[in-house]
Each structure stands twice: as C-alpha cells, then as structure tokens.
Amino acid sequence: RELYEAATVDGAGRWRQFLSVTIPQLRSTIIFVVITSTIGGLQIFDEPRMFDIMGNGGSDKQWLTLTMYLYQLGWGPQKSFGRASAVAWILFLIIIVIGALNFWLTRRISSAEGKKARR
C-alpha cells in the first residue's frame, strides 16, 4: 500500500503505477512461472495423446511433442533405444539450459533490486 500511495503522491497514474511498482515486485515470480511453464510444455505427453488413439501425433503430426517422439522411438513399431536415449539426453540438456537461464536471470534481477534498495 505504501508504495502505491507514494506513487500517487508523486503524481503517477494507474498505468505508471503498474509499470513502476507492480511489475518490479512480480518480476522474479513472472520469470519463475515462465521458465517452469516452458519446461512443463517440453514434457507434455498425456494431453496430445488423448486426441490421437494411434499415438502418431495426428495425421500430419500436428500434436507430436518431444516426449511423444521419444516414446515413438523407444517403444514404437521400430524400436530404437539408442536414438530414444539420445533424444532423452537432448531433452535433459535443454531443461538444464532453461534452468540455468532461470537461475541466472533470477540472480541478476535480485542483485539489481538490491543495488536499487541500497541507493
């Protein structure tokens, strides 16, 4: 409340309060949610599978996700455990990169906010 009251006293309108008060307070949470949602999206399997009984990702492979592709390689008609393992490792590395990016961004934002508070 005090931040919004101070912004009002300084002459900030609703839009300026949103940009200068609300967004900076929610920045770390927004980054966390975006990164975890991206990781969850990379691992989606059940939802597209419900729409496709054959498990091929649709007639034009429009629902084929990375995890469905991994499943098809490892347990499909032509089993290729080596390729499935390689895809699993690539998925793992992508998730590690996204996690490291999340860690770096969160640290950078929290250190930038700490510097502003000290001034």
Description:
With 119 residues, this protein is mainly alpha-helical. The protein contains 5 helices and no strands. It starts with a helix and ends with a helix.
Summed up:
This protein is mostly helical and 119 residues long. Helix content is 76%, strand content 0%.
| Count of extended strands | 0
Q: Which percent bin holds the helix content?
A: over 70%
Provide a count of the helices.
5
End-to-end distance, in Å? 21 Å
Can you tell me the overall shape?
elongated
What is the makeup of the main sheet?
none
Secondary-structure element order, as H and E? HHHHH
Radius of gyration: 22 Å
Mean pLDDT: 84
Q: What amount of the residues lies in strands?
A: under 5%
Structural class: mainly alpha
Low-confidence blocks of residues: none
Question: What are the main properties of this structure?
Answer:
76% helix, single chain, mainly alpha, 119 residues, 5 helices, 0% strand
Topology:
Blueprint (H helix, E strand, L loop, with lengths): L1 H8 L4 H29 L3 H6 L14 H10 L5 H38 L1
Helix pairs in contact: 2-5, 4-5
